[in-house]
Amino acid sequence: MKKLLYDCDNTMGLPGRDVDDGLVILYLLGSQDIDLKGITTTYGNSSVDEVFENTKNMLNFLDITNVPLIKGAGSSQYRISDAAKFLAKEASKNPGEITLLATGSLTNLYGAYELDNNFFSNLKEIVLMGGITKPLIINGVNLDELNFSCDPTAVYEVLNSNSDITILTGNTCLQAFFGEKELSKLKSQSDHRIYEFIARNIEPWYNYVHKTFGVWGFYNWDIVSAVYVTNPEIFKNKHEYVVSSKIDLGKGYLKIDNSKLSSTKINIPTGIRDREDFNKIVFEAWRRLK
Fold it and tell me: In this structure, are residues 13 and 21 in contact, taking their beta carbons and an 8 Å threshold?
């Protein structure tokens, strides 16, 4: 079993807000080889207060009582929070064993480091969803980066922590489109409680994305990073030297310069080997959750 902490900005089910963090929670709960040690909430898709309440309500609906849920910092102005304390404590209790998955702002991670300077070295690995290596275009519309840009100082410190880091960028996640086929599959098995819950909560997001970008479906950003944690073999890995400044990261930009061998070397997968296998893995995990 892989011990995992998940730091997220879950807004699944809230009007006009993304659904992918919630889909990750369901995926992790249904994954056979994941020991979910806790969920910490951050801001990004919405305020940390709204994210925390939404995630609490979701776990209550699912009758999940054995996974700690801890509220994080509300902004980069003061990073010390209950979530930062929890992350630092869990990493210290399990040195070299914890995978930290983060799919929102990285404020809680840097807060944990401010509390315990051994925090990053105590982790086994960090897997992130965020950042762009080139403009993020959806059906001709440019989309701003929404995770790393929230707290560029925190991102800079995480990237330069000498941790084992993998980043699933927005560009890579464009390969994980969730369209009519996937929605129809969920609806066709509406007798399954989790499938019905997912279909009911993601269909409004389909409508929102269609109005905004003119496509029927959405890009399942955060799920990509979660599947990397459980099934790294289905990704095309590529290690790059990242030289981003805090100014770069304020726009979520991962500046790569492979001539700078003394800079930070990070795994930035370039793609998913087989999208059908990817979706099969996701649906099977959801189905295991009753």
Answer: no
CB 5 within 8 A of CB 90: yes
**Which pLDDT belongs to residue 62?**
94
Cβ 183 vs Cβ 203: under 8 Å: yes
pTM of the model: 0.97
Compute, in degrees rounded to 10, the torsion defined by CA atoms 253, 169, 57, 13.
Answer: 90
CA distance 101 to 226: 7
Range of the domain at 31: 2-288
| CB burial string 17-35: b at 16+ within 10 A, e below | bbbbbbbbbbbbbbbeebe
For 159, residues 6+ apart whose C-beta sits below 8 A from its C-beta are 165, 242, 244, 249, 264, 266
Q: How many CB atoms lie within 10 A of CB 216?
A: 12
259: exposed, middle or buried (C-beta count within 10 Å: 0-12, 13-18, 19+)?
A: exposed
DSSP bridge partners of 126 = 100, 165
Burial of residue 120, with CB atoms counted within 10 A of its CB: 0-12 exposed, 13-18 middle, 19 or more buried: buried
Beta bridge partners of 101: 6, 127
pLDDT in tens, 81-132: 999 999 999 999 999 999 999 999 999 999 999 999 999 999 999 999 999 9
The count of structural domains within the chain is 1
In CATH, what number is assigned to the domain containing residue 171?
3.90.245.10
